[in-house]
Amino acid sequence: MAKKSIRDIEVTGKRCLVRVDFNVPLDEKDGHMVITDDTRIRETLPTIQYLIGKGAKVILCSHLGRPKGKRSEKESLRPIADHLHTLIGHPVAFSHDTIGEVPAKIIAHMKNGDVALLENVRFEAGEEKNDPVLAKAMAALAEIFVNDAFGSAHRAHTSTAGVAALLPAVSGLLMEKELTYLHDELENPERPFVVILGGAKVNDKIEVINRLLEKADTIIIGGGMAYTFRKLTQGITLGKSLYKPEWEPIAQAAIEKAKARGVKLLIPVDAMVTDAFDFDAKKLGNIKLAPAGVGIEPEWEGVDIGPASVRLFADEIAKAKTVIWNGPMGVFEIPEAAKGTFAIAEAIAANRTAKTIIGGGDSVKAVKKAGVADKVTFISTGGGASLELLEGKTLPGVAALNDK
């Protein structure tokens, strides 16, 4: 997986087309689009500042939203250019086109260390089709391609894979960090290595479970997918909890593989349950604990792990030297069903001697909501991309980069 990064090549005076992930949430306020969370922009600052410091001509490109090849004022990157200017204290030229004469003229006037931002690549109909004509037009703007958009690396689009085939292609510092923690570190982890997997459906996570069963010392299962494992291992009734009969063989195979490989598989022993559940309204009915050894009653469903499961999991996390977490323990978007997820976030943060990796998506929201984001080793910026990398899949945006 050793890919060249911006540290491995000469960038001074070079036009560097940098694919970043500026797909940030925006809200309309007084007729203007305002950024509500700039985390993704801040994550790319080390790469941008490195290139400015080395005297490169920094040409940034990104997608925003799903405009499907049509221009949309609400999905323009202009507000991001203004915000980036305040973050780096350096002018950011904005091109209202992605390719053609407008960006070409702006780039022609750039001096070493200057920064420009191209308009939303998804305004171009060919972007999501990895169109070779669009790739050629984008590549014509630059001499080097830098991919720092890990969150989009699992997509073979023009701006992630197509351009990379036409120019010397290297990773940015964020991409380099993602690959280090989600791939290299896990190839030979310090042990004990504890994997925590949550989320709703067993079939969504089975590839990750299978892959990590070959590497982990312990796998902790939580979230909606845990109920299938509970039925198989504890023989309890599940009430209306998340479960499908077709998930049983998948879970059973994982249980047997864990046994064969000597991997400890930890499954919840109790659950917080409710008799009414409205996810859209973020509301639960009555809630109570379904304790260890007791089934869930017919009209009730599990929405979180209970305190005994939290203790069981936290004890295991405390002994770990490497921890990776992907997926919540319950419906953490609803405060009454968030205690288990937040308790696991706190248990991970409390282990100060372990390498603690948060593998994207809802787990990132959870550590932030729990207020412990600054106490973990690494937080991935990729949702689908981190999951696919953990599954052992090749990401097109990574494969396209030059090997060391």
What does this structure look like?
- This protein is an alpha/beta fold and 404 residues long.
- The protein has 2 domains: 6-175, Phosphoglycerate kinase, N-terminal domain (Rossmann fold), CATH 3.40.50; 189-390, Rossmann fold.
- It has 14 helices and 19 strands.
- It has helices at residues 39-53, 78-88, 101-108, 132-139, 158-162, 173-187, 202-212, 226-234, 248-261, 307-319, 339-350, 362-369, 384-390, 396-399, and strands at residues 15-19, 26-29, 32-35, 57-61, 92-95, 115-118, 144-147, 169-171, 193-197, 218-221, 264-266, 271-274, 277-278, 283-284, 287-290, 301-305, 322-326, 355-358, 378-379.
- It has a 6-stranded parallel beta sheet with strand order 5-6-4-1-7-8, sandwiched between helices. The protein has a 6-stranded parallel beta sheet with strand order 11-10-9-17-18-19, sandwiched between helices. Strands 15-12-16 form a 3-stranded antiparallel beta sheet.
- The longest helix is centred in the N-terminal third of the chain and has 15 residues, at 39-53.
- The chain starts with 14 loop residues before the first strand and ends in a 5-residue tail after the last helix.
